Amino acid sequence: MPLRTWIPVKIVAALLIFAAAQAPAAPYARRLNAAGRNAGELPDGPVEGAWKDVPFERAQGTRAWSFPRDHGQHPRFRLEWWYYTGIVRTQEGRAFGYHVTFFRQGLHPGALHGASAWRTRSVYLAHLALSDLERGTFRYAVRSGRDSLALSGAAPDRHHVWLNGWSVEPVNGDPLAFRLAAQDQAIGLSLILVPSRPPVLHGRLGLDRKGAATGQASWYYSLPRLETAGELRLGAERWKVSGTSWMDHEFGTSQLAADQVGWDWMSLRLDNGMDLMLYRLRKRDGSASPTSGGTLSDAAGPPTRIRLTDHPDEKPQAGEVLATAVPTETWISPKSGARYPLSWALSLPQAGLTLTIRPAALDQEIPAGAGLPFGYWEGAVWVQGHQAGRPLQGEGYLELTGYAGELNSSFR
Asked: Domain range holding 141?
């Protein structure tokens, strides 16, 4: 999601945590207003003055990463998300795509004053979506809440996030595995995810720049290959499934520059063992921001930074490869009217890669509403291509924002 970029729908992506302050609340918490308080349910009055005046940190400098601690929340930063996508199959080969994202927006990083159980430090938003790739159907659900009364939250030192019954948490007896569980009226899943590779740090040792200004960056890592098994539910139908998933975790405070209006992000697993995360930050004139990029990794060595450019004749700098990403086909949403570029041609000359990305299903859009100020497209994709003349295939997820509404100031 960059955080999502920017996300998070990874952001995302995406994908606005602040929307939780405007969304219809889940069963145990009513509507949050823009100040982050629960109108009519805070006996101690408004939250203004309930904080110590401490600013949020910005992503800059270096970081001493430590896992599983850094799977947890980072409340000193304003924006954070945990993002999970995967393509899983039944024993008979029927394919499904899924994505689950937990977003956190901090209201204030300082310690809370007072003893009220309604004190709120962060608000949360979560998305669940399932794509039936055989039938071409797509269903989704959205929940929101806040961290008062422990109705929503995230542990500071381990992989545990929850929001009104949806959760990701460690599996007892396995220090690496975690369980992802989310049930709504029409859809649900319960999956065990086990990483087969260590975390991949994006950017420079995990610091991923999104703009030229100080702090326009996020701390960002991925678990690109998660062996996955469990159960999916669509209505009354249930399936035992297995496959591979991808996790992004990203946190920062301000990310997008004023001239950046959205992003095109993808996570791809190739059958030659390579994993590719790539994002194109779009400027108002449609061109790619110079901070667009990604990471190419495999099991054999350290990851390679990617710099995405609209100018294929550029020369790469030391320690990087160049990439171009050109949309080749678009789809117009019947719900929002947005025109999404769903098919792409990718070229990474220094890596010998040429790839074609196509959607596994067309309509995988989550429209504006239900707590979301803008819609976005997030869905499963298929990959075909070549590396140094050898054919390859793959699968992954594509996230597209800024086509169905303006992103608001939460990402700035």
From this structure: 17-411
